[in-house]
Amino acid sequence: MDILTGLVIWAAQALTLSVLLFAWWSRDQNQTYQLSWSGGFGMLGVGLILVGLRGEIPGFLSIDIANTLILLSIGVFIGGMLQFDGRRVEPFIIVPALLWIGGLLLPVVRETFSARVVLYTLSSGVGFAMLAAILLRRPGRSPWTGNILAAVLGIYILTSLAHAATAVVYGATSFETLPVPSLVLIPGAFCFVASVLIGAQMLTERSERRLKVLAATDPLTGALNRRGLIDEFQHLRQKVQPEKPFLALLHFDLDNFKQINDRCGHQGGDAVLVAFCQLAAVSFNSRGSFGRMGGEEFASILRVTDMVEAASIAEGLRMTLALQTIRTGEDQITVTVSAGISLQPAADADLDRLLTAADRALYAAKAAGRNCSAVDQNGVASIVPSAAMLTQHDMTLEIQASEQVTALRRLAQAASS
Q1: Fewer beta carbons within 10 Å, N or C terminal of the chain?
Q2: Mean predicted lDDT score pLDDT of the chain
Q3: Of the residues 232, 296, 309, 315, which is catalytic?
């Protein structure tokens, strides 16, 4: 196969992928990496066609513009990979094209075929090295696909350097004067095919991750659903954490939620649910899991040191919500929440028993007037005293604790006596 035929086939494949990715992006325009990769394959395809037309069109188009487009495509691929991982696109992606353009300003490079081959090889090598570095440092991803693609790019860089050295040693004046001209295409074609296959695998992995997330989260609030909470319970129960030997379940129920729906409509009710979940996400960040059980009921599962810590966290969320004003349309909504808390040693924790105990405590909190927390200990529910119920004289200065934590410690002592 001659070079022209190989370039045409390669260009056709690149342009086909460009069209397919653009069509994919047009269906879901939030996935910007698809548009970037579509543009990258488009630039690559046009650049390869211009290279193949060398001798039929001006050298400025078939050399300067063609290779600039190909090197820009590498930068666009790098930008797409950054977007794929949810990272910001940085200006360094245009470095490969800038190296090529800058090198062409030197007459000795511009007028010598072998010098241009070396310049292009170094420019593309820098681009592929940057892409490989990004693949090797992808945050929170399955490493094997990125590592394999990085290895493929490394092979391409080495073979391209060998090709450039051959052009210099033989004093080549064109592709045809190289010992084996068709070998010029092999490294690039290999890298292209391998990149497409591995890229497809990365997209498959991404789709699988998204499906798992969708299966375990509530579509309205983005919090975990019941299934997701069950999975998190198993994870936290098996987690080795000696300093936090207990597993706590915090069951929340928004107070008078039906009245909010009746007064503000379901849009207002949805806004309250979303706002509460956003507040809980901040409150429980790195502490444990939080999810929606259904309707206006929510739950959190977390490892704690004792009941005091669990009740402190629940009370913190309860009091913070009571101070919030949720705005939706023309409505300004204030809402409170009641909480029921249960606790078991992590090694022996049973989710059904935790739920039953937390439900019992939640019922007690509702019966006590709502907007409060209750804990269940040995089948007996006790209301958590609010910090406002205590005076400064009651505070335990010895431990320099907050008013809320001191109140909870008094409750724990009373329950154990």
Answers
A1: C
A2: 85
A3: 296
